[in-house]
Amino acid sequence: MRMAELSAESGVPVATVKYYLREGLLPPGERTSPNQARYSAAHVQRLRLIKALTEVGGLSLASVGAVLSAIDGDETPHRTMGVVQQELAGTPPKVSDEDAEWASGRLADLMRRHGWKVHPPEHRTMANLVAALATARELGQETLTERLEEYADLAMHVAELDVQVVARLTSIDNIIEAGLVATVLGDRIFAGLRHLAQEQVSRKVLGGG
Question: What pTM value is reported for the model?
């Protein structure tokens, strides 16, 4: 297909497609002349993936580039998903050293009890978790942190569902892309379902219209 057809099929404007090509986010098409190229269904799929990562996942183009490089590289699906999670985590907010130390201890104890790998402080997911726990303590909402075991159990259940979806696939490319989608879109889906569930429980427990 031509550039115009690629744009129409993917829903991405021609100018944006050209930008992605220049930045290396989209692989070049097959040259048919000095000024023309032919594109395939794989290009459509890549554009839709970029669109999902930026518009639904909220990733910056720099993060998308890091994720796509991992997908196109020789890393295992497990390591590729690690890159995805790090990019999704973003830059953690600053918290006081005292609260961070307290939160780090709580989190490390939890992970050891569950047999999870304890990551170093610079690990973005860990750093964001520490910041969230520290902020809860700072706000006097330590009751939230007292339910960490239950949250961890729920997280493990959701993670098992995510991986089961991916494990059924046979192609490495499909496994990586499905894992990526499960991580990025799964976060949004679960957050939305959680909010809807909170609305129902709040109505029952707290009352109100």
Answer: 0.70
